Amino acid sequence: MFLTLVAYSDGTVRLQVDEKPEIGRFKVPDVLLPGLKAREQSWNVERKASTKNVHISISISPTAYNVNSNNNSKSNGKVAPDVVSVELSFDPIKLELFRNQASIAIFNADKHFFFQHRREKRETDAEGSWAENFKTHHDSKPRGPQAISFDLRFPQTKHVYGLPERAAAFSLTPTIEADGKTAITEPYRLYNLDVFEYKVNSPFGLYGSIPFLTAHKKGQSVGAFWLNAAEMYVDVQKDAKDSPTQWIAESGVLDLFLMPGPSPADVAAQYARLTGGTALPQLFALGYHQCRWNYKDEEDVAQVDAGFDEHAIPYDVIWLDIEHTDGKRYFTWDNSYFPNPVAMQDAIASKERKMVVIIDPHIKRDTKWPLFKEAEDKGLYVKDKEGKDFDGWCWPGSSSYLDVTSPAARDWWADRFLLENYQGSTKNLYAWNDMNEPSVFNGPEVTMQKDNIHVNGAEHRDVHNVYGYFYHMASADGLMRRGRAVDPVDGDRPFVLSRAFFAGSQRIGAMWTGDNAASWEHLKVTVPMLLASNIAGMSFSGADVGGFFGNPDTELLVRWYQAAALTPFFRGHAHLETKRREPWLFGEYIANHIREAIQYRYRLMPYIYTQFLQANATGAPIMRPFWWEFPDLDELFYAEEEAYLLGPGLLVAPVLEQNAKDVRTPLPGTDMWYNAVTGESIDAGAASAGENKERRMKVKINTMPTFFRGGHIIPMKERPRRSTAAMARDPITLYIALNKAQTAVGEIFIDDGSSYAYMKGVYTYQKYVFENGQLKGFPATDTDMLAVGLPPKQKQKQQEKLPGGGVKIDRVVVLGLTGGPGDWQVTVTWSTGETAGLEAQAGPIYAAGRTQIDAPALVVRKPGLPVDGAWTLSFFKSPQQHTIV
Ligand code: NOJ
User: Fold this and answer.
1) What is the per-residue pLDDT for 43?
2) Cystine design at 689: which of 14, 276, 634, 684 (Cβ 3.0–4.6 Å)?
């Protein structure tokens, strides 16, 4: 046995245990980012030899790595570096992780570390060790038992989160009693499966698996990631003290990363340095997506598209499900219904919208179909245990499955997306990967036999959870290649939605939560499900609006649109047998509410897009639990799973109950919050944590409870349009939500929203700071740019040539000014030193705001500020009503 202990420069510690290399146990390739080796740090070994225990430590520098912007005292560079140390003892093996001498994670405190060596079969082996039957399926298990298990404790920590995907509580509820043995429920399972009609409140694993969790207590977050793609189970023990967890995987190696935080943001960044940040999506991908199984034909597509325009509902993408193909042969079209796919896509593109088609990994075994034949001839399919191409059932009937764990197969697959290979496709067509767990209708648990064989002799059991990830990767690479072929200079960022996912999928594309149902409990569970995936790095995620199975009533449909409009990925989708549910089919009253929900999403687009820039660079989730933004928060809020923050500055408390007359709108912290619709200000400091947690607000069918957080500036675009592209040049409104110290910060990122030109400096990245009675807008510095992974902006003289150049700020809305919003004078000072007075009055925060409060904010109208220049607005309290200068 070999044990390797590595420390990285940000304090992350990696424990690997493997057998001799000749044994060849499977190690998951291509998930960790390249370049990790360069971050390895030498240990200071303190004790050795005389005892069996080794105490080793490293120092990490908070100035280089601490990303927690909430804790300003840390960023002044004067604090001593955190010391992360590790104590390793043997017999029994135990590894304890300390941060500044405090124990934060312990491996094998409970002695559950077992490692089954590869070995010859013995007479005494338990039944099932070398072959097993499951229903009518047989698993030949030629390599015998090879499981690995261990336990992990997080001292004095009551809450652990993550380990998607399942429809269960966000703060993971215990699965075993305090004795560490008696089961309360099944353990959390990580095994990607196509689960028919999944249940809520179940530890059962769904379509994706990320073996990463975050443990959090006041002042300390710790991350744990086991890089292993085999079937895995995790138990969480009922013991309020140390959050003991027990992990077991069927095969592979032990490759465990412990991330010392200390803040949730630090853990997210440490994890992102291992597996990557969220890919920066194209702007259209953040718009509303209209999908259905199926839009029948070209006429149907044209009508649905026209319906959105007729009813003035914005949307960006229309999707086609499996029926658009010729007999479920992906990359083909059913000629009788889609005879002119290029003209159809061009018509959609002429409105600055896009299309997405489904491309699944099962390939119809049709020897007359060149695509099937070519992959067969090249030997690119997964093999069965006899070494023949595996034959499984899926939509097309008898199918082969590409072995995407092989780089050669991925390379070949990626080329299928080139315009010359994909007949009938255009550069405005993007992809949807479904059934990539993989789903095999006649396989055990609707997936592939574990003794199937992949490249280099890996068994399917070893690679199962990473299959969908590699398939997603190959498809995204394909779209990237196509983009480079079309525009060799700037390319085109891919968009691929995937149902299966693994650690690292965030740097490839988006995921959705699969086949949910049109029920209130399914609506409700979307929040904890999406929080779990966000906290595990997979931010670009969403749930089918309306529920996939069944027919939502209009109240459920409206509430679902309202909730989903404020989640990272926003798509309406429905099963083949459901009634049509395009938003206008239920009358004008319902269409109005749905329109308003979708428009709210589009209004927030500049803010949401900028959050993705952060997620790309720092791994920060888009949807955040309260404790992520307030790491020292009262523990009362730690299990919150109805309300959340979208980015740092907007709190969302969606209505998730039928017939709701009011909704709980918990407000964490002790500073100011502002109702984002009415502008009403709420001082969280005036109430106890308990009162803030149970705070309620009255709602009507059109209420979307959202709150600006004091201290934050939210850029929005207020003009209703048909799509994100149509909004590109629209002016910005800045919402300035002041905290009690009368300060606020914000930023905006604008690029072309589609290509890689931003990586060459073609973008606008602007910061806003309100302090000392002044609002300053200024271009981000090179240091700011570095912090979000941007290269310095090109030294272009003509600003209007940059994306964002020429875009104006046409309203500034200030909430929370001491002394109220009335009687202020506002002047603007340009970088030239010129000064002018501006029109400023107390007023409603939004023209269409429904409110009892007439004038909660100071509104500066038409200030004529460029989004990308340097300027200062100064605010003076004047004795009389302000007049325009
Ligand atoms: C299963 C997917 O989850 C669903 O979204 C899709 O509509 C069907 N497959 C048909 O492709």
Assistant:
1) 77
2) 634
Our CA angle for 853, 859, 865, nearest 5°, is 155
Active site residue 437: yes
In the chain, which residues have pLDDT < 70?
Answer: 46-53, 57-80, 794-800, 847-852, 879-885
* Burial label, 459 (beta-carbon count in 10 A; 0-12, 13-18, 19+): buried
Distance of alpha carbon 175 from alpha carbon 147, whole angstroms:
20
515: Cβ below 6 Å to ligand 1?
yes
Query: Which residues on neighbouring strands pair with residue 44, listed in sequence order?
Result: 57
Q: How far apart are CA 400 and CA 411, in angstroms?
A: 17
Residue 397: how many CB atoms within 10 A of its CB?
13
| Packing angle of the helix pair 341-349, 298-310 (nearest 10 deg) | 10
Q: From CA 714, how far away is CA 734, in angstroms rounded?
A: 6
Count Cβ atoms within 10 A of the Cβ of residue 101 and give its class: 0-12 exposed, 13-18 middle, 19 or more buried.
exposed
**Residue 885: what pLDDT?**
41
Ligand 1 pocket test, pick from 207, 289, 291, 434 with the greatest ligand atom count within 8 Å of Cβ, gives 434
Catalytic one among 360, 434, 477, 596? 434
Gap between the Cα atoms of 208 and 233, Å rounded? 14
Looking from the CA of residue 321, the nearest atom of ligand 1 is 11
Distance CA 107, CA 246 (A): 10
The closest of 738, 640, 745, 661 to 705, measured between CA atoms, is 661
Q: Are 73 and 103 in contact (CB under 8 A)?
A: no
> What pLDDT does 847 receive?
64
**What CA–CA distance (Å, rounded) separates 704 from 699?**
8
Cα 189 to Cα 664: distance, rounded to the nearest angstrom: 32
Distance, C-alpha 853 to centroid of its chain: 36
Residues 619, 68: Cα–Cα separation, whole Å: 12
Residue whose token pair is 């291992």? 274
Cα(170)–Cα(188) distance, integer angstroms: 12
Tell me which of 235, 316, 321, 515 is the catalytic residue.
515
434 lines ligand 1 (CB under 6 A): yes
pLDDT at position 853: 74
Least Cα distance to 597 among 544, 569, 560 occurs for 560
Q: How many CA atoms lie within 13 A of 282 on its CB side?
A: 27
Residue-level pLDDT at 666: 98
Per-residue model confidence as pLDDT tens digits over 209-221: 999 999 999 999 9
Please choose from 522, 544, 548 the residue to mutate so as to test ligand 1's pocket, defined by most ligand atoms within 8 A of CB.
Answer: 548
Task: Please give the biggest Cα pair distance in the chain.
Answer: 96
Please give the helix or strand (H or E) that residue 821 lies within, else none: none
pLDDT the model gives residue 69 = 37
Q: Decide if 352 is catalytic.
A: no
| Cα distance between residue 390 and residue 397, in whole Å | 13
Counting beta carbons within 10 angstroms of the beta carbon of residue 4, is it exposed (0 to 12), middle (13 to 18) or buried (19 or more)? Answer: exposed
Query: And the tokens for 435?
Result: 């059934």
Is 250 assigned a catalytic role?
no
pTM over 0.85? The answer is: yes
Ligand 1 centre to CA of 321 (Å) is 7
* Ligand 1 contact via 360 beta carbon (within 6 Å): no
Residue-wise over 755-789: b if at least 16 C-beta within 10 A, else e? bbbbeebbbbbbbbbbeeeebbbbbbeeeebeebe
The CA distance from 160 to 217, in Å, is 9
Cα-to-centroid distance, 193 and ligand 1 (Å): 13
Helix/strand/coil for 748:
strand
Q: Are 449 and 140 in contact (CB under 8 A)?
A: no
Res 72: pLDDT: 37
Nearest-angstrom CA–CA distance, 364 and 162: 36
For ligand 1, the distance from its centroid to the CA atom of residue 100, given in whole angstroms, is 50
Closest CA to 533 of 260, 232, 291, 268: 268
d(CA 309, CA 568): 24
Q: Which two tokens stand for residue 409?
A: 């197969």
